[in-house]
Amino acid sequence: MKIIIDDKIPYIKGALEPFAEVIYLSGDHTTPEIVKNADALITRTRTKCNAELLAGSMVKFIATATIGYDHIDTDYCDQAGVSWTNAPGCNSKSVEQYIASALMILAEKKQLLLKEKTIGIIGVGNVGSKVARLCETLGMKVLLNDPPRSRVEGHKGFVDLTELLEKSDIITLHVPLTMDGIDKTFHMANAEFYSTTKKNPIIINSCRGEVTQTKALKEALKSGMISGAVIDCWENEPVLDRELLDLVDLATPHIAGYSRDGKANGTNMSIRALSKFFNLGINNWKCSGVELPPSLDIFIDGTGKSTQQIIYEAIIFTYDIREDDHRLRESVETFEKQRGDYPVRREFKAFKIFCKINNLKAIHKLNQLGFKL
């Protein structure tokens, strides 16, 4: 058996060598000639798995170690008898951490008291659900919009898009990219979308670049229709719109889900899925050697500090989004390299807080976020 693996997928080397011939390649160098005699591919979003790559090959199975799978032509795979799987929810806690850091920095920059704000979450799947719980923990009022879920589960707990746009101070997008149909998300955030807002909200996009129409977003920012933006996913990346970059509050190179925990989860899910498909007997395989940051201990003296200030210190210790923003603005042309060489980031559960806090509410909220105290 021959397996082609994207060489940027972490913690995977050595896992499959006992069972197959394994070739590690950059996603950009995975060609039809190389794939022709392969039985399986383990990929990331940079490998376009379509007829051009797969036609005439022996590929029977594709695993992408990512939540998104719009780089896989699923219709072609279904017709050609190629099974495929993604890694739903693998980095959802990482995106939650990204949103938490963004909210803390926005609150500091714009002097916001988060418990007085309403956040609208568009897309309430694995990621959106965790972001909703985060925001509830921060004391925010949360509005949820997810038409596919509301059709199945009923409308209770959900609002329509118009209501969300009218009532939200912050709007965060967590939808898959779909190009057509009743739930089309391509250019969802267009001129009409922004014109429907009433409270000059801040927009956060950490799902897919094409969900937001760049021209409309720039006009909304320049006109004051929206009061700010945090952009992790860009149209036409890795080529960025420099004007948009200058307009947004925080800009990052598509790394919201790039915690080491999220990457390890994606690898785990891909290996296990491939094992089940080919009956390799490693259905419970787990990554080892996941890196740690320099320190996992957080010391907080909460004397005289508000609950939001205490939570700010904990969250920003684990991940300060401004560092990614600074790196991107300093070197836009190295967008892909910044993703490939991303620094070690671990999620809240990896950290322990040693605290002098006479604030039971803050302690309870830190526990809810997943910190050890």
Name some characteristics of this structure.
37% helix; six-stranded parallel sheet; five-stranded parallel sheet; Rossmann fold; 373 residues; alpha/beta; single chain; Ribosomal Protein S8, Chain: A, domain 1; 13 strands; 3 domains; globular
Written description of the protein model:
By secondary structure, the protein is an alpha/beta fold. The chain has 3 domains: 2-86 and 259-278, NAD(P)-binding Rossmann-like Domain (Rossmann fold, 3-Layer(aba) Sandwich); 92-251, NAD(P)-binding Rossmann-like Domain (Rossmann fold, 3-Layer(aba) Sandwich); 297-369, Ribosomal Protein S8, Chain: A, domain 1 (2-Layer Sandwich), CATH 3.30.1370. Helices cover 37% and strands 15% of the residues. The protein is built from 15 helices and 13 strands. Strands 7-6-8-9-10-11 form a 6-stranded parallel beta sheet, with helices on both faces. Helix 4 packs across helix 5, helix 4 packs across helix 12 (307-318) and helix 12 (307-318) runs parallel beside helix 15.
Number of strands: 13
Unreliable parts = none
What's the assembly state of these chains? single chain
CATH superfamily of the largest domain: NAD(P)-binding Rossmann-like Domain
Tally of helical runs: 15
Largest sheet properties:
6 strands, parallel
Which structural category fits the helices and strands? Answer: alpha/beta
* Beta-strand residue fraction: 5-15%
Which radius of gyration do the C-alpha atoms yield?
Answer: 21 Å
Could you say what the CATH topology of the largest domain is called? Rossmann fold
How many separate domains? 3
CATH architectural type of the largest domain: 3-Layer(aba) Sandwich
| Secondary structure: helix percent | 25-40%
